[in-house]
Automatic annotation (TrEMBL):
It is a multi-pass membrane protein. Belongs to the ABC-4 integral membrane protein family. LolC/E subfamily. Signal peptide: none annotated. Residues 273-398 form the ABC3 transporter permease C-terminal domain. This is ABC transporter permease. It is found in: Cell membrane. The chain crosses the membrane at residues 26-48, 271-295, 325-344, 364-393. It comes from Algoriphagus sediminis. Residues 27-235 form the MacB-like periplasmic core domain. InterPro entries: ABC3_permease_C (IPR003838), Lipoprotein-release_system (IPR051447), MacB_PCD (IPR025857). Keywords: Cell membrane, Membrane, Transmembrane, Transmembrane helix.
Amino acid sequence: MNFSFFIANRLSFKRAGGFSETIHRIAIGSLALGLGVSILAFMILGGFQSTVSDRVFDFTGHYQVQRYMMSNAFEEMPFSKRSRFFENYRELPFVEKVQSYANKAALMKGESEVEGILMKGMGSDFDSLTFQQYLIEGRMLQIPEEGTSNEIMISKYLANRLLIGLGDRVTLYFVQNPPRFRRATVVGIFETYLENFDQKVVIGELQTIRNLNGWTNDQIGGLEIFVDDSEASQSQIREIENVLDSDLKLVDSREKFREIFDWLALLDTNVYVFVGLIGFVAIFNMGAILFILIMERTQMIGVLKALGTRDKQIRRIFLWNGFRILLRGLLIGNAIGLGLGFLQDQFKLIPLDAASYYMAYVPIYWNWPVFLALNLGISLLTMLVTLVPVLAISKVDPIKSIRFD
């Protein structure tokens, strides 16, 4: 058996007892707690960012195709659905689906209140299954292939503001010359918890907007593009733009709602600082505790040196001891972080105020590369820190250390 490993095994805290056992447990506990909290922090951060960004993408698509305009009006310039892009987008392997839409500003009148809204008209290609998760009351729109059903879905926020509910008839006054209005029935109430959508958007039919604007049956305001990878990349943008018509432009949802995604990116910095502080304390504790162990075993080091043991062999004893502490800390830390994350993911144990946090419970995101990087990073830094006190062994004088008390 390896000499250094044999001595390190005899020095394990189960055998040593007393003070050694206590500081061993402190070292393991600090590492485990630091790693466990770090894993949970990245789980929650990733879950929060993923949940908010998915709500934006589900509502608007990852990209929108629109016609070039000279102004920043809410309403789009129409173009034909028989565009070159619509005919060729299926050749792009990363595009999952495309759906047509158009926006139109209006005033919506309830029983006694009036609210300014933006009606988003969806075509028959509207993916109601994806949007179903945000429906809290009623049903989805039933969009006919021809004509209109005069049905709308409104947010819970607007329903409360206008004092209207399912089955109520509301009047929509559209801002145009001459002004026109439509009577519509509320068939569904949704909630995304995002103010950009809940406070102003009403989901209606594209054909209604066509009729109001005098468009033909093949004209639309825009196309929403959904891709299989939500991380916007320049290569995706270039491939889409290569098949766009000359009078059409591509709008990235990350740019359109920059304030939301900049805010989400800012959260990264907070978590990195938080995890960095926790990691520093845990790793510093490891080095300090190993130094205490060396000081406690000064007499043993002197005896080993007097018997002819080389400094390199003695160093390996304490490196093995540090490695055992690190391994136990990693195992317990992963069990804490991944275990608590699994419980929250499955049973939603910790609720949130949706009005403040945009979701009803603490979200969890399983990012295995990040978890692996945390384990590797803490392991490498810990082993580097343990080298500092271990190097002091070469300065231990055998005669003085044997008489050390």
